[in-house]
Automatic annotation (TrEMBL), chains A, B, C, D, E, F, G, H:
Organism of derivation: Desulfuromonas versatilis
Membrane spanning residue stretches: none
Database matches in SMART domains: AIRC
PurE domain mapped to chain residues: 120-252
One Pfam assignment: AIRC
Protein name: 1-(5-phosphoribosyl)-5-amino-4-imidazole-carboxyl ate carboxylase
InterPro entries registered for this protein in UniProt: P2CMN_synthase_LarB (IPR039476), PurE_dom (IPR000031)
Length: 254, 254, 254, 254, 254, 254, 254, 254
């Protein structure tokens, strides 16, 4: 262990086993992570149940399988994102308890209970059914990170009354993830209705001047509703990760 | 008159005053507008009160003055658009009956009554106060073209309840012009609330990733509400012109 | 029925069956659409024959089939757009009266007579044969919405005399949809020839600097002919929907 | 008061003073905000000390003065953003207690104590001195919204050791706002060092291929560090507003 | 024939067989091309040997076959461009005299001698071997249009001495077509070496920041050598067509 | 003279005055232009009357004056382009025979007769009056290069009949320069009407989605009329230079 | 040999075997590379072991095989880049000593020892595992060009401590190639840590607003660390080629 | 001094003055730069004469003056870049030995001899006179960094023989900086002529489709000549900084 190595070094110095010059030299060349930046992973080590995350997109079925198998041995919970349905067979055979969500394109393996982050609720709102895969990725991720999650589907701005009919569920959220393609207007409307943080996720849904999500992205960045922040196009995972960091603030103090 | 000239030609031919070859040659070289495409200006001649339109933007105060003076002599109504306040003085001195709207940056000179197009109403809706100049240009233009005009200001999507509070005025319109900058989401919401044509006008209001109106333009082109059509950024005049063509359809038959 | 529910509530209050406080609470939490925004679908309920619309593009043959079958049971007319030829077989087997247009990629099922909107005519003009699929989608949609439709094909600006040869058909339209790719110049020319509303549809036809329809889109947004409005690239359906809203204005009063 | 009006209406109905039909009609046309969406401003009314915000950018000195004077009479705290130094004179003369920050280009008038949101701290980090105006706008805004604020200046990634030397201050924040222009890399580095939410603000600082902040914006949207969300270019105010919504979650429950 | 029809009409009028009113009406509704714009095809009719052109790209093998067969019956020469190798089999079977160029992806059927335009020579220069397909399309097209054609391959600017070694062939051209991808610099160098018209064709060759030919296109539009004009990306056909119009000017007078 | 120097060198070698090694060395280091590439300026030296060209744009009035004065002494004809009206005074005082065109922003000093290139005529066509400066720059340049020039103003595609009325002047041109902003559609229409080369010049006229001439540029690059080539935005000079190279081909043989 | 030919020519002239005029003519038409620009390949001829390079990307397996076989006969070392695994079989069968790197997609055939350039070391640093193919292409290329190469993988800025732990390897490099996708921030951090030249290679790794490497490219061009230069997206080969030119400067003088 | 502090700490530990636990704690919280990353500035301290660099662009004359005065007191050499002529007066008055270059817009104050880096030479090549300011900034910077510098002006690719006439000076350079706007083709040509590193600097010179240097930037990134690397638009300083890092490799070993 790093902290131990450092302690050993200092003890040796204290005991006169090495000289000040030797100690100086060793410290200068020690990997920096060993003596301070280790805080980065500090919380991670404390919190049990945080999943390992594997990006399935650019990997073969075999590669994903090997990685998951290797991680599974350590008893960790595992979340595979962007995993095409054609790659999931070996995983499901090997881990019958694993769950594959074909909409979210996620594979979840829960080997020990997910520790809840606290009392807050992450609400994932979705403008149209075509935006569903990204919304589901966000929802699955948020759950795997210990959040209570609620989902609201198909409440686009062109039928705004459908959104208003669920105003109570908007009111109950600690943080809202809004997923929308095309003109990306939904976060602006919701940002004006709630007083909690709103994370907007543009999707690549649309055609022509949608430019693969750019129109929605620009719409969200220019939102007239303050309090809205934005992640990359189709980045449901990133939105959920940020939402989880936010939601944890409202939970019981660590 | 062109039709007369053509008639004269044919009569001469019929009377043997000119030969077939001569007639053929004359017809071949006659300006095309004289014998068919003249329909273009047909309606214009029939409708009294249609204003002459002058684009003030790239012209000097002197140039605008000369053009307006020349037109005024023919007794026509005149609309000058995009006229900076620094160029209007000579016009107001010369035409004390003219009206300058500093928001719309329009100068209107009404010398004969504007003939109303019919019973329909053009509603101009405006997302924010910064979008007001473009909205006002649209409103002034629509009035000069003979439309009854209603205006709704500052009903952006981030405070969507302000829009709903005026639902009755949305209901009364024959055609709605929606002016919005930033994310340009308002036309989608309104397109879902009304069943009449909606013309969306993106404005260059905003900063950063608004890209001078591009974000709003893309938002409107990708509107999830069917029935929305779009004009160029800041083109209040064009929206009103198109709205007037539409509104005329609902009026008394010509 | 919503209005009925509201009436029941008020009647109960009036009859003293519930208290003012109870009424207040119930009203506060009632879905908003039930008490006001319901106007949205008001006209829809009045007009018989308006089709249900299904976007076939991102759905499997099975999904489309299920949706259409479900809708068909309610006796509605149905329009499926962007339906690839490889998905249409099950529909045609099940609904032998349905019509599939391989150019427009539309499937239409007419179960009760389409009620005509009125006397006006929607003219769909098409610059080149490559633009035909988008033009056909517009034409089919407009007909399903109750419009009389005329079509003019292959009258691009590089052979402008072909357009002029059909000037009479331009004259007869109430609203003109102009479909063009490449430089998208046709709406400007037509906008200068007619005095009715013109809806321009850029297509993704072209290569290189056509940028998938962006060149045509920009050309149309910058049209020097006033009265032209624009929809998204390849959005024949949207153009027809807007045209239908416009055309209805000229029909018999509802 | 709206709720009162509704109560009056129901009471009258209950008392038989108006009929069910009359009640139905009145409810149908009541502004919607009065009966449900009023929750929007609910929290605002509860929280004392929340400032009124005025965007100074596109307003004249006279307009800003009038608005501020009008608001000041109601005893509210006021924050004017994007206020050029040339417009601030009248405000400072009229409100000697007001403070103008020439870097942030903000004017703050605190008429009643700003109620602290809670124990959390918003840290504003700034890559270079040129990014300072945006960072200061964020800091001033966050303070006016009741947050405790810390600031870290000139810790760009090209001299990354300067950032590490202040690791303790990173550790103390509840939410971090990272302001950076040019390549916008700082949020990625900080996102990897902390476990709290990070809000990235691209600035228009740079030249050439910086494209007015687009390079920084894209860099931030593509951050390899999860948990980073982004606001519009130069939008220090928006970042602070979102940070405040987040920070409030960690404070004492309302 | 159109001119004949017009003559017949005038003769009938002259002979009193139809009245002036009837003549007026017929003239007004005659297709415009019949009485004046017919000049468009004037030269085409005079020049024998000008090929019919078919764009093969978006057509099936069957469609191309039908079109070519239909045209071939009229005895015309035929040029099919952008014809994939998988579509050419039926054509070659049916027309054994036809020639398919797999580089240019062109099919040529010469049924009557191509009439040479004159003494000038079109030189097609090509920066790299990857640009060859576009260069070959230009060369084949120019030959089919009656031009003498010379070709210079693989003389990119990074090995500029290879170009200078063929200076004599540059000197002999009447018009030069320069085909280049990547940075598109070759037209600038050649434009500085020759004193005849230079037509630049950007190609989509390249990767990354080549953006499918946009880098080359911009390079050519910004050429520091005057006298260079540009066509669309990969538009070898268009360059040859324009070059042929130019080359004809230097030939024997028609 | 270079050729002379080379001759002298070879003669000296032939006469044994220098050794082969010396000759080899001198040849290796001779400026390359001296021994072959000199053809570049060959034609220039032969043609009298070709003007010197000075780009006035980024130069001070003093700099322009000095350059012109220096050139004038050599008796050459001089063309200054993009010369603001505020810089022309000293030139007109010093060269009273010089002509300044405030539209074209050109200054021409003709000190010896401009030798005509031949019988052909360059026609400059201009879509709108705002495009006039660029069109005039093209016309003035073409004249200074020895071309006969005709000009056609304000014949935009939205009033296409105005163009047809001047069909005869289109017929007389050897090469047509078409100048247009906004949607840039005019070259397509003209390219379909004439059979001579067409050079399209996009202008930066327009606003919003005109993007400073990009919309017009894209429109022209995607022209559906073959035979159209394009130059940079606002590059009237370049279009005229290319047109002159083309027109020379049709003139008397050099 | 060219220099020999020139010598022969001059000797013949000196000996009176050819006249001055003949010598003049021959010199004028000699390929230019023969008499001066030959310096271009001068160094190439001196350095043994420099490989021939073949771009495999747009070539068939057969084409690549033929080219390599032809080159191999001349005994040269050969580097094939961007060679898909499906094309390598014939090469490996024919040249069993050749090595194919499936990550780098390179095939190397070393037939004679690669001459080392000198003492310096090229370090290839790679932000994430997805960037590995480009990094490997750079490493393989640099080795084939005679450079000593070190590689550092997966040291992205979001886990910056991993980079610092290898500070010693950064210190040992003469030139550093930094390969990164997404936000492309790594070159800025490394540019601030080392004092040797840094060449940044953006990769097309990422999705959404990564725009195929554009975000990384812009990030690198705007690097706040001076001394960083950039090559095209995914251009590992080009980076290595430039690095080799740099590294050679530090080696033994040629 | 940091290293001293560390030594003191270790000595105290060695002497038993502090415990191992205390030593551990202090080390963990020490600023990281103090114990390892200090290598960053190591070379800087060794090399005398390296100038301090001040970016003048966004600073007032007063701010620049204060910074320079403060630095000057420490006896360092100072380079101010992007300093408008209107800000230089106070500096020249205060430091009469300072030199202002109005082309480069640089102010140099040399207070102690600039130590030459070695024998190599940096060549700055410039396509046109408009590119001169950027080229001069590069040249001045390179000289201030201790490089011998040569400059070659106005050798654009449209007059390529002017470049070849100076081939000897290309041959003498250790590294070449190529500055070009418009199409940015010059680096490709030079990259093919020399065998040393080439750094390309796009400039914002040009108009229309030059897009403020983007066309040149893309041209350079897509250079067909390997060995070319690129910096940001107008970044003469950055190019010189990188060139200096390269040139140092060829100098005497430190």
């Amino acid at each position: 262990m790093n902290a131990n190595e450092l302690k050993t070094l200092l003890t040796a110095l204290s005991a006169g086993e090495i000289s000040v010059a030797e100690g100086l030299e060793k410290l200068r060349t020690l990997p920096f992570e060993d003596i301070g930046v280790a805080m980065i992973d500090h919380h991670r080590e404390l919190r049990q149940g945080v999943p390992e995350v594997v990006l399935g997109e650019s990997k073969s079925a075999g590669q994903v399988f090997s990685i998951v198998e290797c991680m599974a041995e350590r008893g960790r919970n595992i979340l595979v994102t962007r995993l095409g349905a054609d790659k999931v067979e070996p995983l499901l055979t090997r881990f019958p308890d694993g769950e594959y969500d074909p909409d979210a394109r996620t594979f979840c393996l829960v080997q020990k209970p997910i520790e809840p982050l606290g009392a807050g609720k992450v609400l994932v709102v979705c403008a149209g059914t075509s935006d569903l895969p990204v919304a589901r990725e966000a929802a699955v991720t948020a759950r795997m990170l210990g959040n209570e999650v609620d989902e609201l589907v198909d409440v686009g701005v062109a039928g705004i009354h459908r959104l208003f009919a669920r105003a109570d569920r908007l009111r109950e959220a600690t943080v809202v993830i809004v997923v929308a393609g095309m003109e990306g207007a939904l976060p602006s409307v919701i940002g004006g209705l709630v007083s909690v943080p709103v994370i907007a996720v543009p999707t690549s849904v649309g055609y022509g001047a949608a430019f693969g999500g750019v129109a929605a992205l620009l719409g969200m960045l220019n939102s007239c509703a303050s309090g809205v922040t934005v992640v990359n196009i189709d980045n449901g995972f990133g939105a959920a990760f940020a939402a989880s960091r936010i939601n944890r603030l409202g939970g019981p103090k660590p």
